[in-house]
């Protein structure tokens, strides 16, 4: 059984709504169970720059709550497009490991329709991961090793990939290749905006925690673009 989770919120601009609807049209075709997790379910939230986001540990905890230990949890961001055979590839990968991830293909133009599976590779491979899968028992065992980081900010994904690869050494690298895509976007509130990257308190939190984690694990943060 696969439970698909994401941080569910109502975007306040039409273009973001469009991207979300396009992505979520691909989820409806997957033989998984969608489990939107809304802000009202969290006991704490990060509020800054006109945005409200959860902590990654709280999000995963909510997704795992009351689930069987062997259930597979799939986390994506709210605007991630998945291939038609994504669930099949996830199930196949999870026969060999307890956790895995997928890098995304970025399209740098507006997507008016979902790309065909064969067209995913026409996007540009992005160094970040917006899809993670793990069994409930894996998360319960390793959650405390995951720093208390925020989603929708920099750094949590390479930390989570490192945690997966270190905890599943016999199967690393634990990558599911080419099952997710994304329409590139930005804007004045986005963390990738140069004005925000080192100014926002949420960014500072994530980058500090990421650097500490990598140094404790013998990894140079610069390998993940974190100065």
Care to describe what's here?
The structure is a single chain. By secondary structure, the chain is of the alpha/beta class. It has one domain: Spore Coat Polysaccharide Biosynthesis Protein SpsA, Chain A. It is built from six helices and nine strands, in the order E-H-E-E-E-H-E-E-H-E-E-H-H-E-H. The strands form two sheets. Strands 2-1-5-8-7-9-6 form a seven-stranded mixed β-sheet, sandwiched between helices. The protein has a two-stranded antiparallel ribbon with strand order 3-4. Strand 3 and strand 4 form a beta hairpin. The protein starts with a strand and ends in an 11-residue tail after the last helix. The model has no long low-confidence stretch (mean pLDDT 93).
How does the SSE layout of this entry go?
Layout: E1 2-8, H1 14-27, E2 33-38, E3 46-48, E4 51-53, H2 56-64, E5 72-76, E6 81-82, H3 86-93, E7 99-107, E8 124-135, H4 136-142, H5 156-167, E9 180-183, H6 201-216
User: What fold name goes in the CATH topology slot?
Assistant: Spore Coat Polysaccharide Biosynthesis Protein SpsA, Chain A
> What is the percentage of strand-forming residues?
15-25%
Q: Residue ranges: pLDDT <50 for 5 or more in a row?
A: none
Mean pLDDT: 93
State the name of the first-level CATH class: Alpha Beta
Question: What value does the Rg take, in angstroms?
Answer: 17 Å
Spatially, the strands of the biggest sheet line up as: 2-1-5-8-7-9-6
Largest sheet: 7 strands, mixed
Helix content: 25-40%
Intertermini distance: 40 Å
CATH architecture annotation name? Alpha-Beta Complex
């Amino acid at each position: 059984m696969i439970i698909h989770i994401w941080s569910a919120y109502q975007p306040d601009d039409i273009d973001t709504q469009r991207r979300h609807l396009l992505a979520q049209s691909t989820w409806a075709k997957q033989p998984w169970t969608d489990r939107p997790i809304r802000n009202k379910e969290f006991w704490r939230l990060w509020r800054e720059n006109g945005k409200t986001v959860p902590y990654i540990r709280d999000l995963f905890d909510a997704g795992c709550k009351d689930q069987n230990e062997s259930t597979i949890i799939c986390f994506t961001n709210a605007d991630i497009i998945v291939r038609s055979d994504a669930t099949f590839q996830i199930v196949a990968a999870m026969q060999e490991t307890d956790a895995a991830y997928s890098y995304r293909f970025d399209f740098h133009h507006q997507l008016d329709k979902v790309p065909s599976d064969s067209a995913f590779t026409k996007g540009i491979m992005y160094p970040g991961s917006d899809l993670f899968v793990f069994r409930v028992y894996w998360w319960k065992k390793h959650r405390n090793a995951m720093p208390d980081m925020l989603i929708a900010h920099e750094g949590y994904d390479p930390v989570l990939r490192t945690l997966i690869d270190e905890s599943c050494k016999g199967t690393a690298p634990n990558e599911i290749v080419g099952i997710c895509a994304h329409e590139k976007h930005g804007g004045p509130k986005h963390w990738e905006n140069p004005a925000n990257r080192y100014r926002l308190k949420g960014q500072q939190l994530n980058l500090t925690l990421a650097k500490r984690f990598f140094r404790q694990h013998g990894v140079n943060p610069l390998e993940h673009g974190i100065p």
